[in-house]
Amino acid sequence: MRLxxxxxxxxxxxxxxxxxxxxxxxxxxxxxxxxFAETEIVGMEFEPPGGAYLLGTDNLGRDMLSRLxxxxxxxxxxxxxxxxxxxxxxxxxxxxxxxxxxxxxQILSRxxxxxxxxxSLLFALLLLSIFGTSILTLILVxxxxxxxxxxxxxxxxxxxxxxMDFVEAARLRGEGMWWLIRREILPNxxxxxxxxxxxxxxxxxxxxxxxxxxxxxxxxxxxxxxxMVRDNAALITFGDITPLLPAAAIALLTVAINFxxxxxxxxxxxxxx
Length: 273
Known about the structure:
Blueprint: H1 11-28, H2 30-33, H3 64-100, H4 102-116, H5 120-131, H6 135-162, H7 165-172, H8 177-214, H9 225-231, H10 244-269
Helix pairs in contact: 1-3, 1-10, 3-4, 3-6, 3-8, 4-6, 5-6, 6-8, 8-9, 8-10, 9-10
């Protein structure tokens, strides 16, 4: 398949785009698509699929299909907000450190290296145990941990641009730091930053799901795919695939985003198909 400008689009990227659009539509219109309310108990525990309950019910008698749809809004929305905070704060600090340089760059780099050296999941579990498990705390804790990765990437790519002749010429003209970032550096590093945003969303999405599975993420009765796997895990013993449905939803979105990011990186690399 080809776009309007003649660039080829692989089938994997088309598949990824379709999946992302479907997930986004489901998250936005969850209230209209879900047959039942998010926390409504509609039947007995662990009712089999069929009839009024297309995917059966969970451990409390709530409709699984409705919980999956509401979980799309909660899981994707919180992951997107967390990624946005982590990305913009990390990219801003990285660009600032690359342009200013000197001791400022060294101090910021070493401080964030200390955070990176701590296993992120264990550190998140520790911080959430101390500060609580509210949604705001969850967003801020994961954003701070993921921001360190964005900082390293943005600083690395910005350092390659800062030494270019056109940046030095702008400095000699007396242009300010933010002008350099906005007009000279950012346009030249946008491609890897956009790809990093997609990959970082995957990591944040998986981290939130893992924390919810462990009981320190999105708290009940709010629907979340990670906690849905934990709540219905007992059914695996009886050969029921119900716990695998939210797990499959998590995996499908992650794979779809990676397909699109790989295609974007391939396009910007200049390599031929």
